[in-house]
Write a structure and sequence with these properties.
Largest interface: A-B, 40 and 50 residues
Helix content of chain B: over 70%
Radius of gyration of chain A: 21 Å
Order of helices and strands of chain A: EHHHHHEHHHHEHHHHHEH
Strand content of chain A: under 5%
Radius of gyration of chain B: 19 Å
CATH architecture of chain A: Orthogonal Bundle
Number of strands of chain B: 4
Number of domains of chain A: 1
Oligomer: heterodimer
Helix content of chain A: 55-70%
Amino acid sequence: MSPVSPVIERGTAISRIAAIAVAVIIALLAIAPQALSAGAIDRMTALFIYVILAAMWNALAGFGGLVSVGQQVFFGLGAYLAIRLADAGLNPFLALFASGIIVGLVSWPLSLVMLRLRNGEFAIGMWVIAALTHLLVNLDRLVQGETGTSLISLNVYDAGTRRVTIYWLALASMSALLAILFGLLRGSTGAAIRAIRDNEDAAASVGVRVTGTKRLLFVLAAFGIGIAGALWLATSITFQPKTYFNVQWTAYMIFMVLVGGIGTFEGAILGAVVFFLIETWFGGTGVWYLVGLGAIAVLFSLFLPRGLWGTIEERFGLRLLPVGYRVTFPGNTPANDGTAPSLEGTTQLQEKA
Amino acid sequence: MSNQIIQGILLGGYYALIACGLSFMFSVMRIINLAHGSLAVLAAYALWFLALRLHVSPFVGLLVVLPLMAAIGWALQRFLLERSARGGALLPILTTFGLAIVIDNMLFEQFGANTRSLAPYIGSLSYDSWEWPGSIYVGKLAVIMFATAVVLLGGLQLFLSRTGLGRAIRATSEDPDTSGLVGVDARRANAVAAAIAMVTVGLAGAFLGMRATFDPYAGAPQLLFAFEAAVIGGAGSLWGTLIGGIVLALAQTLGAQVHPQGFLIGGHAVFLIVLFVRLSMAGLSLRSLLKPPSRSAP
C-alpha cells in the first residue's frame, strides 16, 4: 500500500508518562490515610468501589458487548456470602475475598445459560436472575428477610483500624482488578475481545472463540462486582437484601460507563470519578439527583455515545493506557492517526458506536 | 384448588396485556423497551390523578390517557429509539433504562412513596363476583381483564394481517430496507407500532391500578412479568403471549401454595425452566427467544 513501512507501537510517549503517573498515584493513595480524616477515608473507599463497579460493567458491556441490568445480583451475592462465611467462623476480612471467589465460581454455570441470550434478552434475563436471587436470599433465616443482618465479627477490630484496613483492601482490590483487566485486554485475549466488541459475527468467522471469551469477561465481572459488594458490606456493616440487590447499583454502573466512555479502559475510571463528584455534591438532593443521573445517561447515549473519554481520545489521538496497537507511517504526524491508514488498534475507537 | 387455577388463568390475562406491547415492539423494532413497566405505572398514575382530582372514572379516564400514551409512544420512537438504534443494538437498552429511572423517580417526586390504587374509583366492580357452578367465585374485574386481553390480542392480529398499515408494519419488521424499496415508510410504520404498543401499555396500567396497588417503583416488576410472559409464550403468534401469561400466573399461584413467599419465586423459576428447556432444545442456532408474532400471520 505504502512504500514506507509502517511503525507499529504499543504506546506513546504520553502513555509511558501515564504509566509512571499511575504508579505514583497508587503509591500516594496507599499512604493517604495518614493525612485524611475518617470521613474522607470512607469516601475514598467508596470511590475505589465505584471504580471497580464501573470497570467490571465496562468489561462486560464495553468489551464483551453484553449489556446486563442485573449485575446487582453479584453485588448482593458478594455481600451475602461474606455474611454467611463470617457467620461460619471465617475471619471477616478473608471472608470478603473468599466470597468474591465463590461468586466468580457461581457465575460460570450461570454463564452457560445466560450467554446464549442476545442483547435485550440477556439484559432483562440477568434482571430476572437478580430478582430471583434476592427472593431466595430473603428466605435464609440468618438474613431475617428484609430486616437484614450485619457483619458482626468485624466489631472485634477498633473503628480506626477497621476503616484503614478496608481502605487498603479496597485500593488493593481496585488496583489488582484493573491490572487483571488491563493485562487481559493487552494480551492475546485482548485482540479477541476487541474483535468481538467491534463485530461479533466477523470475529467468529476468523476463528475467534466468541463464547469462551465472553464467558471469561462474564466471570471476571461477576468476581469483581462480588468483591465490590463484600467491600461495601465491610464499610457499611449492615446487610439489607433490598439495598444490595437494588437495580440502582446497575444504574450507577451504566451511568459511570456511559459518561466516562463505554469500551475504553480509561473511560470507566473517569466515569467513576465523575459519578463520585456528582454524588458528593448533589447526593443530598435525593430524588432529583436520581432523575438527573437517568437523564444524563439518556443524553449521553443519544448525543455522546462514546462518552467523555471516547470523545477526548478521538479528538486528540490521546492514549494514556493503551491496550491496542498503534500504527503510524513515517512522514505523517504520529498523533493524527485519524487520517493515516491504520489497523485495528487505532481505528477501533472510531468504529465503535 | 380448581378455584385457584381459574383465578390463575384470569390473572394470566393481565400478564398477557402487559406482555403484548413488549413483544409487539420487539418484533417490529427489535428493541426491548426497559421503560415498559414504568410507562404502565405512569398511565396508572395518570388515571389515578384524573379520578382523584376531577372525579373521572378510570374507564372514562382511558379516553384521555390512551391517546396520550399513543402520543408518548410516537415521541419515544421518533426522539429516543430511532436515534439510539442507529448506534447499534445495545444503546436502546441503555437509553430506555435511563428513561425508566427518570420516570420512576419523577413519579416518586410528584406523588411520594405511598401505594395507590384505582379500586376505590370503580365502585363495586373491584369486589363484585359471579358464582360459577361448583361454588367458584370469579371476580368480574378479572373476567373483564381477561376478555380485554383476548379482544386486544385478536384485534392486533387482525390489524397486522388485514390492514394496509398492519402489512406495512410487518414488512418493516421483516426487512426495513427492502420494504422501503417497495414504498413502505419505515419510520412511519415504526412510530405507529410504538404508538400502538403504548396504547396496550396504557390499558395494562389501568388494570394494574384496578386489580392491585402500585407505587412509583412498581414499574420494574411489571417489566419482568411482561418479559417472562413474552418469553414463555414466545414462539409463534400473539396468542403465545396469552399462553405465556397464563403459565406465569399459574406458576405464581402454585408457588404461593408451596411457600408464603413463593408467589414471585414460582414465576421466576418457571421462566428459567422454560428458558433452559428451550435453549437446550434449540441448540446453538437459537438467535432470538421472542419470535415476531407477525411471522405466523397469514
